[in-house]
Amino acid sequence: MNSFNWKTIARGTAALFALSLAQLSAGHAQNADYNVGSVQITQPWARATPKGASAGAAYMTVTNKGTVPERLSCVSSDVAAVCQIHEMSMVDGVMKMRPVEGGLEIKPGETVTLKPGGFHVMLLNLRHPLQQGQSLEATLKLETAGTVQVQFPIAAIGAPAPGASAGGGMMQMQGPPGGGMMQMNKP
Ligand SMILES: [Cu+2]
Question: Across the chain, which distance is largest between two alpha carbons, in Å?
Answer without folding.
Answer: 67
